[in-house]
Amino acid sequence: xxxxxAEHASGQLAKATLEMVTAARESGREGxxxxxxxGQGVAEVANAAAAVAEQVLVADLPALARYDAELWAAxxxxxxxxxxxxxxxxxxxxxxxEFAPRVAVKLDAPYLEDVIALRANGAxxxxxxxxYLARVTETVEAEAPVTVVTVKPGSxxxxxxxxxxxxxxxxxxxxPAPRVEVTGRSVEKTNRVALTEADVIVTGGRGVxxxxxxxxxxxxxxxxxxxxxxxxxxxxxxxxxxYAEQVGQTGKTVQPKAYVALGVSGAVQHLxxxxxxxYIIAINKDAEAPIFKVADYGIVGDVNQIVPALIEATRK
Amino acid sequence: MKILTLVRQVxxxxxxxxxxxxxxxxxxxxxxxxxMDEYGVEEALRLREGGAAxxxxxxxxxxxxxxEDALRTALAMGVDRAIHVETDQALDPIALSRVVAQxxxxxxxxxxxxxxxxxxxxxxxxxxxxxxxxxxxxxxWTNELALEGDTLTGRHDVDDGNESFRVPLPAxxxxxxxxxxxxxxxxxxxxxxxxxxxxxxxxDAYGAAPTVRVVGxxxxxxxxxxxxxxxxDPQAAAAELLDLLRNEAKVIA
Lengths: 316, 253
Ligand SMILES: Cc1cc2nc3c(=O)[nH]c(=O)nc-3n(C[C@H](O)[C@H](O)[C@H](O)COP(=O)(O)OP(=O)(O)OC[C@H]3O[C@@H](n4cnc5c(N)ncnc54)[C@H](O)[C@@H]3O)c2cc1C
Ligand SMILES: Nc1ncnc2c1ncn2[C@@H]1O[C@H](COP(=O)(O)O)[C@@H](O)[C@H]1O
Known about the structure:
Chain A has 316 residues and is of the alpha/beta class.
């Protein structure tokens, strides 16, 4: 079987899970698409999964109330073994890429990480993934009784509901005791469209000048365009914006239809997170800024003058 | 206690990546210690300088002869000793974790620091895979670390924000930008590093072979329009950009 570990948050099945279902179906690997739901209070998540998969395995347990890499890895490896999975798909989120290698080691399986395409090649599984800060696209292949894969968010279309509803089964797990104690937690909530789902993103860099300007110009323009808000690492490190908004190597990878970069220099680590956007628009006062090399439309000018004019123009 | 820091040698982030014969060609590229690993080396040094009972800091690298340079950099930053498992075979993270775990055991280390994401293969897997082989917990994407006795505390990024944690050693930690500001090796320290131990080892002893085969590599650049608009007249520039977005790109209504 193909085992998919569901991604979910706040009691909702995440789009990433639907994308993994498509990856599983398009891969050409055989066997029922089985979604494993780990968590507490996940009945709705399981129902949503049953609308797209042949089988849903549910572990609704107090011990799984909070994500923990060791627990998630133990549960996934156990179910993969019991179900004789030949393919295990895990979301390419931060947490997914954190516990997936543990699953691979437990199963003595090869690991195809953060893949953007997946297909059976005879007995082997072949995938594409980005390397060298997303500048290179690499085709990799593994051949083994079971292969672990993480799927890059946004790389596959979300699976539409299947005609029939999948069967749900409760599973019993042999879980280790968690060893990492969480002593504090700060969740960054925004009311805006999630960056990974936005069609348009407006991102501000250090060139925006101040947190106040960021609010006025970056958020102001995003409001007018119904866009998500992104930030560079420089801006996040300066404490102007929450980490949740960071785009780049150590932040989110995004691929919107339009990416508007305001006062962003275009460092390789930033480009690695947004370089695949359909259209890139840059406003920067330095005509030599590297961001212009990847821009479709660029304005050489001061964000403090151009952006208010842009916001004004959208009202016309 | 002892700390093991992992060092990988990668092309400089600004280096132009070339492909020849379907493979990445590093000919002519400047090779440096992976920036993510520098944070690990720096953090090990800071934990010791901050008063934690760190007996020894050991740097480990695998790869061809040239990776010695990255180990020398770690030694010049202040690491005590280095181990080079020399091989021309590139190891994927799952394979490499076998080597790291065995070295960690042989050396009796209780903390392993690994860069959060490799600048060449964009992989985040090595820390977690190593932790699993050793049966240790892991903390990824750390922003802050403190060591008191056998307890590691700190803060790290998670899916939707960040968490503070406490964990008993042994553990594997992955590092990232923001954890610290890595020091530059000074000339006297570069000289001193030449006298430090850099032990050579061969891969044979570790039973590690690649688990993933690279079929091909390719650079797909999207052709960009590169239409530049002069911003001297902000109103005109704004109107022109909006018109292009609406009517040419058709990405906004
Ligand atoms: C290991 C590692 C990981 C990293 N990960 C990330 C990551 O995930 N994301 C990320 O973004 N960065 C990352 N970085 C940092 C990256 O290298 C850059 O430092 C960062 O992206 C720069 O942010 P910036 O463009 O906001 O600032 P700067 O580079 O300072 O650029 C500011 C730009 O604004 C322009 N400007 C100034 N004033 C104005 C004005 N009034 N009007 C118009 N333009 C103006 C300037 O010309 C300049 O081009 C990482 C670095 C490392 C080493
Ligand atoms: N993304 C990758 N993941 C794992 N191993 C890789 C990766 N890229 C390259 N390798 C390994 O590196 C060897 C050659 O690499 P290269 O010459 O860099 O393409 C391959 O045989 C692989 O073992």
